[in-house]
Every structure is written in C-alpha cells, then in structure tokens.
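RECORD TYPE: inverse folding
INPUT: structure tokens
STRUCTURE:
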C-alpha cells in the first residue's frame, strides 16, 4: 500500500490552478476524512466547485471522484485512521477471531447510534405522511442500495399491497415516467451520487413525484431532489462498499418508518399483519 496518489498531488502542485491548489491543500490536510465525503461535501468543505473536483481527478489520471476516493482509501496515510476494516485482520487464532466479532458488533452499534443522533422527528413524520397519503410507493435503489429497497418493500408488504419494488434501473426509469404526484419514491442511496440515481430522480422531479431519500450524505446530489431526507449513520470508506454496518443504519430507518406507518391506523394494520402471517404460516412444515 502506498501514498502514490498523494505523491502525484504534491508533484503536480505547482502546475495547478488557484482552485486546484486550494483543493489539494484540503485533501492533503484531511486525507482520512476526504475518503468519506460526497463530492458535494468536499466541494463545500474545500471551498471549490464540483466541476473543479472533476477536473482535478482527470488531471491526476483518474476516471472520476469515486476513483479518487478509492485511491485515498488505499493510501497509507489515510489508513492510519482507525476504521472497521481492522476487524478483519489476523483471524488465524480464536482470540483474534473473538476480537473481530466484537469489533463488528461495535460497528453495528455505532451505525445505529449515529443514525439515532441524526434522526429528525419532523422529517420522519413528514416521510410517513407521504407514505400514508400516496397511491403507490416505489422502493428504488441500485447495487447494494437495491437490497435495502427490497427490504423496505418486503416489510411494508405485510400490511399493504401499494409498495412496489423494481430492481432493474431501466425499468425504474420507465416506471418513473408514468408516475404522478399521487405516487411516492422511497429511494435508497448511501452515497447519494450515482448516474442511475440521477436519471430516475430527474424524471421524478419533472413529474412532481415526491421523493423520500435514505442516504448518508445530507448535502448529496440526491438530497437536492428529495422532499425528505433521512440520514443513516456510519462512515463507510470506498473499500468497504456495501458493508453490513452501513446497512444497519438503513435497516433501522426502515423499521422506524414501518412502525410509525402502522401506528397511523393501528387496528387495521394489525389485522393486515395477522392475515399475512396466517397466509405464510401455511408454508411451514
């Protein structure tokens, strides 16, 4: 593991523009923190534009901002900061294995506690208001976030048939093009900054479809589209993409939405849960 990306910044520093030097100064001074930031957060923190960051990445020979984050995550300097990846090292003996399991448990608790600390009751209430009033709720996400969208659909399907899950990004785009303001999109994106996500949310915005976003980055691109944003905890670096700890915070938010939703019409939703439970029980041996 080397600091080649940081060395490249240092070597090319004198040839950078004023804004490029400003960005490089921030990254070199905050290497460990930068790998966790969205492009919009880095732009705000460093005082440059997102376009400057994109040009900076290309100047370094990188395909985009995500490649920069990966390079920083692999650097020795960034990894002097403690992170949950340490839990996976040296598992050859039982003592280390036990420590690994404890570290993982601690990361899950940290994720839920961070999520609680950032949970805004008003935003949660507003999100449930949208879910209750909607004609249909489309649970969307791509990659690992698609799994979380499916979890939400599976849970809410025990009390209502109006939740719909679509995996394929092309079909998500088609479905969004036919939505109305009476529908709602429940969108999962940890980074809040992907091309497929932007394509779907651009169409949703044009059609005035309300968007509930579950993300880690409050000032991400996705958050600029959302009517309500719910923030999940846990700083996941690029090398941990799809980590269970990051999903724990999202699962907690799904459960919060579900229980508040069910409380709005407790008697009816309880009857629905009984009905679905009885139906599924017939499949058990």
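DESIGNED SEQUENCE:
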């Amino acid at each position: 593991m080397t600091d080649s990306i940081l060395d490249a910044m240092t070597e090319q520093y004198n040839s950078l523009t004023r804004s490029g030097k400003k960005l490089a100064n921030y990254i070199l001074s905050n290497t460990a923190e930068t790998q966790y930031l969205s492009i919009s957060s880095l732009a705000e923190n460093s005082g440059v534009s997102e376009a400057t960051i994109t040009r900076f990445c290309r100047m370094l020979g990188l395909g985009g901002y995500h490649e920069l984050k990966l390079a920083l995550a692999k650097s020795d300097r960034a990894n002097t900061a403690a992170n949950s990846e340490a839990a996976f090292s040296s598992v050859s003996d039982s003592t280390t294995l036990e420590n690994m399991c404890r570290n993982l448990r601690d990361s899950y608790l940290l994720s839920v506690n961070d999520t609680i600390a950032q949970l805004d009751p008003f935003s949660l209430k507003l999100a449930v208001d949208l879910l209750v009033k909607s004609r249909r709720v489309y649970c969307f996400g791509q990659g690992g976030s698609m799994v979380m969208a499916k979890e939400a659909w599976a849970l809410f399907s025990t009390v209502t048939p109006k939740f719909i899950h679509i995996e394929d990004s092309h079909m998500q785009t088609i479905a969004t093009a036919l939505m109305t303001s009476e529908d709602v999109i429940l969108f999962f994106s940890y980074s809040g900054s992907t091309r497929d996500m932007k394509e779907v949310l651009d169409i949703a915005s044009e059609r005035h479809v309300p968007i509930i976003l579950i993300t880690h980055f409050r000032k991400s691109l996705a958050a600029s589209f959302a009517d309500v944003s719910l923030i999940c905890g846990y700083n996941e670096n690029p090398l941990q993409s799809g980590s269970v700890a990051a999903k724990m915070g999202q699962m907690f938010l799904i459960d919060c939405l579900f229980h508040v939703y069910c409380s709005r019409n407790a008697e009816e939703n309880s009857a629905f849960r009984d009905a679905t439970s009885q139906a599924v029980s017939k499949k058990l041996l």
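NOTES: The chain has two domains: 4-80, 119-281.
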